[in-house]
Predict the structure.
Amino acid sequence: MTTTAPTLISPLASALGLLVFVSLSVGAQDAKPPETQSLAPVVVTATRTLREALDVPASVDVIDATAIRDAQARINLSESLAKVPGIVVLNRQNYAQDLQISSRGFGARSSFGIRGIRLYVDGVPASFPDGQGQASHFPLDNAQQIEVLRGPFSALYGNSSGGVISLTTDLRPQPNRIEVNGAMGAYATWRTGVNAVGGEGSNAYAIDANHFETDGERGHSGAQRDTLSLRTAFLDSPLGRVRISLNSVAMPDAQDPLGLTRAQLVADPDQAAPLALQFNTRKTVRQNTLGTDVNSRLSDVFSLNTTLWLGDRGVMQYQAIPVATQAPANHPGGVIDFDRTFGGADLRIVAELSSLTTSAGFDVERMNENRRGYENFVGTGAGQQLGVLGNLRRDEHNDVESADPYVQTEYRIGDAWRLDAGVRHSTVRVHSRDRYVVGANGDDSGATSFSATNPTAGVVFRASPRLSTYIAYGRGFETPTLTEMAYRPNNLPGLNTDLAASKSNNWEIGVKAAPSEAVWTTLAVFATRTRNEIVPLSNSGGRATFQNAPRTRRDGVEAAAEWKATPFLSLTGSIAAISARFDSDFSTCGPPPCPVANLRVARGNRIPAVPQRTAYLGLKFRPGWADISIEERAQARLLVDDRNTDAAAGFSLLYLSIAKTIAIGAARPRIFGRIDNALDRIYVGSVIVNESNFRYFEPAQRRTWMIGIDWPLEASKP
């Protein structure tokens, strides 16, 4: 198996890095800046109000619409986040399990879905009150920008906010525009879509609809997905600025190839695990979210922001649970089937004085879930069928609700100093009612609750109009998700109410600089200490159980730079290094069955699925006849379990793309082509942490190609 250690990335990337260094040290002041605004962004997430990034005591990166759209497949959020230091997006190439996104190590334990990070679309949460979320419905075609917040100030978003990813769509009055787009590539992968934006006066609308299909490189990894996003805005209504959004996503029977053992990986990384074929492992997902965001100006000083949302989510997942394992009367079966309704409200009042801005709010969320478990087989003996819906084995109703008051304030002392502080009190309650009480199964009803008061504070010093330094502190809080509490150890049914919430102390110091209109640089050093870190205890056959590790620590540094050397050439680079380790001994499970955790995890072991180093270097060249992009992405190895017994090798990958706007009559379509993993590296894209049967490895795609087109249609007259 070919691997590439990323200790030093390719000579091309090294050359690009040297160019960036030289440009920042001597060349930036002499370069003629392109005819664009300063690269220093304006951000919202850290302070909840519009602020220059130089005035914010936090690490916040902004990915604009051009970076999201141009020459990108626009299928996964992972395409846009590669250059953000501290954010690791592991694309499993497994649409049954979604992306694995971690922020400074938070969320790395996830074997499916996204947790530990709060997700938002136009201010409406894409995360549930228990902290779990998914990003498959993010409307990338209509995205105006994506903000990525890391570090202490993420704690102001409450439970499971180890980081924040917030997408804002292009929703403003403008001439009506309609665009049809499509792309096709390797492994029968294709996408079609249509989006439209426009508006008149103070009203606006945006529509985005997409269909995606792929056969997948690995066996049994095909998927299809339909997404729909409808948005409208009334910017001068009697209530003030009103935005209404509807998001919908449907994925029927996304195939799950499961992870591979080391031997299977070496023999054939493209294969599906044999159990995946035997039980036809797959997942069907549907989700709809309706939200509204109202900003009302109450006076010259006070404004009120009201966000309301509601939705539903349904999942049916067929797992690879052997028939014999399901034999005990208290086993919940091999098919997960649940329906959820969710909703919430966030009311925030803002007072803006000459040197003081204060926000006070109350956030309440609720989720109701009907969860059922079925056998994944019917019949016995020679006539037995696997991977089909069998007898009911679990039937329960779960409720999760959260209630969070919070306050945040910014005090400006002259032109040089900014003081930011806030506090949020989070309360999360979970209640389960067992409606399947049969024989030895017993009654598994139960309830638990979590609470924490989380302060944050930061100081910014603007040494000059183009340079700022800051220091920040925040206390974080993360509850186990309902899915993580769904199974108790040793195949016992019912909620795992023994799990405690993890609590962390986060420190950060950083520098931000815009030495010229064409240069933007950031540097951050951080330290995190966590108690009761939630970690996988066992992970077998699609069923994961969790426990608390007493103490962990994370120390790291992140740096990024962007230089628009000329109107025709730009360079972007970022690098992150993190030491994420367990800070105490504890015990974990080995291969099943595991009645008692009996394997020692030593203090000093690294936290799995958190690469020690990541790096990104990109060059964009616009000579006039086309736009060319060259990217290099590197990542250190991924440890697979808490005991650090094995690891997926690090890698360095090359990405190439070219795009051109052409004239066909009055139309100006833009065509693109791209090659990902151009050097055809064989590598592991993600790992399943603590997989009890040693099926840790999820191979990534080799060299792939894609071509596509964005075709604007003639605008209609308003």
